[in-house]
Amino acid sequence: MYVGRFVVVGPDVAAYRVSSRSFPNRRVVEREDALTVAPTPDAPETDNPYVSYNCYRTAAGHAVVGNGSHVDPITEKLGLGYPARDALAESLLALDYEKDDYDTPRIAGVLTPDAGAYVGTVRKDALLVEEVEEPTLVATYEKDSPEPIGFEADTASEAAGEAYSAAFEHAVCSVGVVRDGDGYATAIENGPEN
Predict the structure, then answer these.
(1) CA distance 73 to 181
(2) Exposed, middle or buried by CB within 10 Å (0-12, 13-18, 19+), for 181?
(3) Do the beta carbons of residue 14 and residue 39 sit within 8 Å?
(4) Which residues contact 65 (CB under 8 A, 6 or more apart)?
(5) According to the model, what pLDDT value does residue 194 have?
(6) Of 82, 38, 74, 81, whose CA–CA distance to 57 is shortest?
């Protein structure tokens, strides 16, 4: 089944995976304050605004994962002291779903400093933001409402690997995040070709 990009968020773990039929020549790169989805050196040039974006950032003890430019305003609002639910809802509502040929939903998850977790999506027909107590998946297609998922990762590397190898089609790259003391550990899985 092709579900497109997806996030998994649970109380102690988060993951994000790029799955793509249209733009498979991407990888996650580490930047100073973010993990960023970017084209590989051999990727064809594109002016598509949805191909490159920060998929992971942190602020004020929160970790944020998501499938697009909304990761930045969510992170900024958390840094200003917004509650996770409000930062997700306001940012997703303001940016709305992607205005591409598929009306692609925006998806995101937040781990909070007090061991909470939230997942959100904005689709053409709904804005959903939920606090979750177990690993929960939301994807851009087919599984575009949050649903619990068996996700057993204990380390960031395991989370990235489990997201990458999940039984959904067209894996490109993934990120894993776990709580690590007062912060977060991350790992990247760029697949065999990246």
Answers:
(1) 25
(2) exposed
(3) no
(4) 7, 9, 14, 15, 16, 55, 56, 71, 108, 109, 175, 177
(5) 57
(6) 74
Tokens of residue 159, six digits: 């989370």
* Ordered domains of the chain (ranges, CATH): 6-41+50-189 (3.60.20.20)
Q: What distance in Å separates the CA atoms of residue 148 and residue 132, rounded to the nearest whole number?
A: 9
User: Which residue is associated with the tokens 């929960």?
Assistant: 136
Amino acid at 62: H
Convert the pLDDT of each residue in 108-129 to its tens digit.
999 999 999 999 999 999 999 9
- Which residues of 31-135 form beta strands (DSSP E)? 35-39, 53-59, 62-66, 106-111, 117-122, 127-131
Residues 6+ apart with CB under 8 A from 140: 3, 4, 5, 6, 67, 104, 105, 107
Instruction: Name the nearest CA neighbour of 13 among 190, 184, 130.
Output: 184
Cα(144)–Cα(158) distance, rounded to whole angstroms?
24
Token look-up 């949805």 returns: 50
Q: Cα separation of 150 and 71, whole Å? A: 25
pLDDT tens-digit series, residues 130-177: 999 999 999 999 999 999 999 999 999 999 999 999 999 999 999 999
Tokens of 172: 């490109």
